[in-house]
Amino acid sequence: MTLEGRTGELVSDWSLLERVVQRDESALSALYDRYSGLVFSEAKRILRDTGAAEEILQDLFYQIWRTAERFDAARGSLAGWLLVAARNRAISRLRRKTGKTEELSENGVSLKVDLESTAAQNILLHKVRVVMGSLPEGQRQALEFAYFEGMSHTEIAEKMGQPLGTVKTRIRSAMEKLKQVLA
Amino acid sequence: MTNGEHIRDEEFLLLAAGALPEEECAELRAHAAGCAECAAKLAEAWGQAAVLAFLVPQERPAATVKAELFARIRAEREADHRYRWPTKSEKEVRAPKMDDGLGRASTAPARRPRWEWVLVPVAVALLVAALVQWRENQRLSMELENANRQIADLMNARQRTQMLVDVLSAGDTVSVKLASNLETANAWGTVQYNAGKGMVLYSAVLPPLPEGRTYQMWLVPKNGAPISAGVFLPKQGARQLWTAEVPLNTEVKAFAVTIEPAGGVPQPTGPKVLLGAS
What we know:
A: mainly alpha, globular, B: Immunoglobulin-like, 6 helices
């Protein structure tokens, strides 16, 4: 199964998910082809470990197979859930958390941009990099320490030698700027 | 945590960025779980954070990952099919009908071939071998992870050293000596500042402070409010160098060190202990 339907039109995530609910492996395969690169790259960036990133990738798609019926097109974004869940699991692993990690609800991420085609992903990739490149170095660094290294604002303040309030402001400002990407 | 009953907007952003400590995250998520309005805002903040994945250089996973995923799915489907309770019609298909000699058909009990029991010890042995292999893989993964972490630390240290060399060797880096306002004889500081790179390097010898207080370095720009260049606590007898990033191309007229509450403050409030004009 390719990303294209028989008529040549792009098959939406939600159509594919409906087919996954009906136990259609080719639909899961299409979703995997669509998002596995993003999920794997993100997990690997956080963990710096190919094997561990592959495990997270496989577990997430296995979860989609097992719980596809829980996703609701009206309430969340599959791509958003994949990216945030991958980040959270990788950070949990990085920090060697024990016990049960709090799971992100299947409909817990609202991402109102199209990521269903490679072209759309490339456009967003360009926009994100332009916006992040325009941020002052301190804002960009603070956000990356939080998101990719799993550091709390207090740890970031200590690492950057900045007051806690400054670090919070930097992260908030950087996140606000990211709204431009989604506008 | 909340403004009235709801989570504040800034907290959504900090939570989604991953910057809040675990206890605060749990508290906010627990609130959002029972509050549709906050849950919707949190979902939007997560969406904003999700696009950060696009900052990462994109790589494709090995083809074997997908193959393993589908092997796992097929094994599970097969197991489900094999071990689920058979339906009535399946029972009838599997069990041959026999005539009981009285003209009534009966269903023969399904016979399990004896040789299947040979598989039990084999399966146990395979399970044990798989467990041993899994533990070994875990150990090796951990070692590899540690090694990768050490490499990352070394690369960070190398980058920092390179940055120090770049700033110190740049022709446009200015060097400023800071004079002490303290009565202590041995108190001084030096600052290296490169406006083009937005970098400040400084060292200082200062007396120890009581608990809950810290020294804070400030750039005093020609226009605008002082800019923090970080908090620091010099160790007696140690040679220490602190670095800070500041907004690019800031024209600075002076550098100052003040005593502030631990953690620092957005603008100076305490007494100046070191001062130097640029």
